[in-house]
Amino acid sequence: MRSASLPERHIVGASVPRKEGWDKVTGAARYVDDLVLPGMIYGATVRSNVARGKIRKISFDSTLSWNDFVVVTARDIPGKNCISLILDDQPCLASETVNHPEEPILLLAHADRHKLRKAVDAVSIDYEPLPPVHTMEESEQQSTIIWGTDNNFKTFLVEKGDVDAVWREAALIVEGEYSTGAQEQLYIENNGVIAAFDPENGITVWGSLQCPYYVHKALMTLCGLPEDKVRVVQMETGGAFGGKEEYPSMLAGHAALLAIKSGRPVKIIYDRMEDMVATTKRHPSRTRHRTAVDKDGKILGGEIEFTIDGGAYATLSSVVLSRGTIHAGGPYYWPSVRIRTKALATNAPPHGAFRGFGAPQSLFAMERHMDRIAQVVGISPIEVRRRNFLKPGQTTTTQQVIREEIDLSHLLDRALKLSDYSGKKARFAEENKAGMRKKGIGIAAFLHGAGFTGSGERYLNSLVGVEAAADGGVRVLVSSAEFGQGTNTVLCQIAAEALGLPYDSVAIAQPDTTVVPNSGPTVASRTAMIVGKLVQSAAQGIKQTLTKAGLLGDDYTPEDFRAACQEYIASRGELKSYARYEAPSDVHWDDEKYRGEAYAAFAWAVYVAEVTVDLTTYAVTVDDFVALQEVGKVLHPVLAEGQITGGVAQAIGFALYEKVVWQNGRMINNQMTNYIMPTSVDLPLIRVFFEELGNVHGAHGAKGIGELPMDGPAPAIVSAVEDAIGVRFHSIPLLPEALFEGLRPESLEQEAPASTRGAA
User: What are the residues whose beta carbons fall under 8 Å from the beta carbon of 259, sequence distance 6 or more?
Assistant: First the structure.
């Protein structure tokens, strides 16, 4: 007899087959561009070619028969002309002014894709130019106001202790400025949607997307439709990385407007160039540190200024800024700290979500600054971290008490041993005395909060369902989207384990807003921890319902479960159980003071990078990479390792390869031939290791891990470069030309003083 509470073979913790794996490898998986509806036509967007200006006139080439085309302008919008998200400041279609290159102005649709492309080129727009703002520094000066009254989308202030007193106590005051560039998500499948409309049923959208209910909310506002007249279905999605969090709301809105006006289904699929030039990127950032330390390198306190470039509209900048703010102090104990942060407006396409969500930017600065403190004090990068690590019972920068028994010194020691850090460092120092190829090794320590920040999960109020059928099959009902990271598989594992059923007995519903409840967006490392815990509760609810009905005992077989479901449904109707998020009683957050428990749990990590710097080509190659992290509980070893490996690979691109080249607010290297990402031959062996301390707030002790591996590689790699050639770098991406420039004698002479002696 198999116990439901203690299966003979645990499903959670095993590398079971992916739920969607068979369809993907056999070609049966259906992506949005595979879908063809009767009478469907194709849509396209006419975009601004200026950074900022007033629209004077729109002209249509008279050689085309425009009666054959569907034309939509802002005047055709039945609801409110905005992409409803947080501040609702971004128009769906510009009507009077444009605020960034590639801003949508007009939509066209036609049955012939080739004629449609010619029609887009045949529309000309005359502008009255307005002065643009292209950098954070220009935006700060406020000589030209392009948003609100001060160009600030959002500001935060975090204060702890008495910062003003620490300068007098300091043996040294260490200062530094660090910056990161924009980064393109570069998912395999470009953005795409199909929209269909009929007056009786309303609008239906099928799309490649992360957050069905974000799109649902945006369409209700844009189209002026009630909740039950908007349906959003997530198709198989070929990668996202945050790039399909909010932008699909824009694309869905465009397809919906064309479908409403034409009365026919409309498909819009971006090509790679349009996808890269028009959609969101990772926010560029600038961080300034001023830190008071004692003679031994222990942090007494300091000031951190973190600034991000939000682009032309607010979109998700406030939440990206929030996470960057909270992670700005790293995994270190700050007795006193003042963190001032802001998101600024510029006339570039809005920046948005990207794996890590602000934390990779501020943690890059923190880790580079720790290396600078070590250099000034005269101790090793290892020792400066060890002396400042957070310990259980201490508080973070937001005064959150560390309650879990994390031992960061142990994590550090294990990472050093796994990487042979000491042996390699000594060997490289000897080998580097000759030749033009220099070897180095560097580390980074960091943390990443799982779930929405502070009161965010309370606000989302997520709801999850599980239903059982008469044949004993179980289906998980969530709006959490699968886009390669393993959502479908892990949530089915959790449900199967909770019910004591075989993994194959559990399926997951396709995210469809008419079928699944709103379990919140698939972002912020929240799916396994937050949604997984709710799936576990909902599944247990099914079992409890059958037990209370007298149909199921404590011990049962899958056949017993099937018989119980069959009898229950025959006599009482559908068998469903729902679980809604309830905030833990010990998680308190003050939104006004930005203080308290920012996250229910943190994942922790120490990464070690080994590099070669070629002083002939000025190229940096990562030769070996050790990624050690504490993640609560590994639910699926293969998927977990894949998440870390993929995140590290993406972060290597962030550090060394991926540079967005801007010209007048427009990305001009919007092709994969000149926007360079690392390929498999550019990547090292990425050696992944886990530790598991558990987590009372996650299913089976799980924490989120999807974003964690994006945070640490860049500072570890740049630290290794410094170790190899003895030159500090403060910005990424570190391209060969940046390395060349940094090694010029003039650049070395201009290196700013790292510190001053303690002073007020």
Answer: 195, 196, 197, 203, 265, 266
